[in-house]
């Protein structure tokens, strides 16, 4: 298991001042950018041009979470846009192994996401191809949703499979992560935590990043 990392999602930030919003969280390890196409999920955000502008505005690496159809064709554009980590959904990829290799070959960390109802077991042998596995803890599409406790056993099983295969793959959770729920995720074996509304609704988002990090460290 790697050290605890906190990756605030900008989904609930002010889209009119993204560079300024990102500057409020210098303590973040990554900036999580939720790309939505209104097909894979019923919500629409932004595409590679906007992501590229954001990448130019910060030194913090970008962690793209692609909630888009036809990931095989569309994901490489986000490496070109400057994302240091690119996550595609397995439900949207026809050839996940080829895609993960393509992302790595282009110079970014390759990551694969699972929706709450998608099991980890069929993908056990893919773990070595991935730099990170994202287990969604809400149905993807919106920020501010309630954390789904039913995802905790899958986080535990994923951690056990990673230990069994001896891989260095990071285990990220995304959705409803807050001071109240982060301990449960860390105890289950997650080491990378996305938090959107918890961070951007705080009076001082950077203080919240630090608080989330210490709570996860205490529990992990
Ligand atoms: O990918 C998603 C939602 O689909 C997330 O990244 C959320 O944007 C996180 O927001 P909170 O649940 O933490 O408010
Ligand atoms: Co996300």
Automatic annotation (TrEMBL):
Q: Where does substrate bind?
A: 9, 65, 141-144, 174-176, 196-197
Sorted alphabetically, which keywords does the UniProt record give?
Answer: Carbohydrate metabolism, Cobalt, Isomerase, Manganese, Metal-binding, Zinc
How, per the record, is the cofactor bound? Binds 1 divalent metal cation per subunit.
Q: Which cofactor does it need?
A: Fe(2+); a divalent metal cation; Mn(2+); Co(2+)
Recorded catalytic reaction(s): these are:
D-ribulose 5-phosphate = D-xylulose 5-phosphate
**Could you tell me which Pfam families the record lists for this protein?**
Ribul_P_3_epim
Matches recorded under InterPro entries = Aldolase_TIM (IPR013785), Ribul_P_3_epim (IPR026019), Ribul_P_3_epim-like (IPR000056), RibuloseP-bd_barrel (IPR011060)
What are the annotated GO cellular component locations?
cytoplasm
Entry keyword Isomerase: yes
Q: Where does a divalent metal cation bind?
A: 32, 34, 65, 174
Highest taxon of the lineage: Bacteria
**What EC numbers are recorded for this enzyme?**
5.1.3.1
Pathway recorded for this protein: Carbohydrate degradation
The biological process GO terms on file are: pentose catabolic process; pentose-phosphate shunt
List the Gene3D superfamilies. Aldolase class I (3.20.20.70)
Molecular function in Gene Ontology: D-ribulose-phosphate 3-epimerase activity; metal ion binding
Keyword hit for Isomerase = yes
Q: What class of enzyme is it?
A: isomerase
Q: Could you name the active-site residues?
A: 34 (proton acceptor), 174 (proton donor)
The UniProt entry's sequence similarity note says: Belongs to the ribulose-phosphate 3-epimerase family.
Q: What does this protein do?
A: Catalyzes the reversible epimerization of D-ribulose 5-phosphate to D-xylulose 5-phosphate.
Protein name in the entry: Ribulose-phosphate 3-epimerase
Q: Which gene encodes it?
A: rpe
């Amino acid at each position: 298991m790697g050290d605890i990392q906190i990756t605030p999602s900008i989904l609930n930030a002010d889209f009119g001042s993204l560079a300024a919003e990102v500057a409020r969280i210098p303590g973040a390890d990554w900036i999580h950018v939720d790309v939505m196409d209104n097909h894979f999920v019923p919500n629409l955000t932004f595409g590679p041009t906007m992501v590229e502008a954001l990448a130019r505005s910060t030194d913090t690496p970008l962690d793209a979470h692609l909630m888009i159809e036809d990931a095989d064709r569309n994901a490489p554009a986000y490496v070109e846009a400057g994302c240091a980590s690119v996550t595609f959904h397995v439900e949207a990829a026809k050839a996940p192994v080829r895609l993960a290799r393509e992302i790595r070959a282009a110079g970014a960390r390759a990551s694969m996401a699972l929706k709450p109802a998608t099991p980890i077991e069929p993908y056990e042998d893919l773990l070595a191809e991935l730099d990170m596995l994202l287990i969604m803890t809400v149905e993807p599409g919106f920020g501010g949703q309630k954390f789904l406790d039913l995802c905790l056993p899958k986080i535990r099983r994923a951690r056990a499979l990673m230990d069994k295969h001896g891989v260095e793959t990071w285990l990220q959770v995304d959705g409803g992560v807050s001071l109240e729920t982060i301990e449960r995720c860390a105890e289950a074996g997650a080491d990378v935590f996305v938090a959107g509304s918890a961070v951007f609704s705080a009076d001082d988002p950077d203080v919240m990043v630090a608080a989330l990090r210490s709570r996860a460290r205490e529990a992990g």
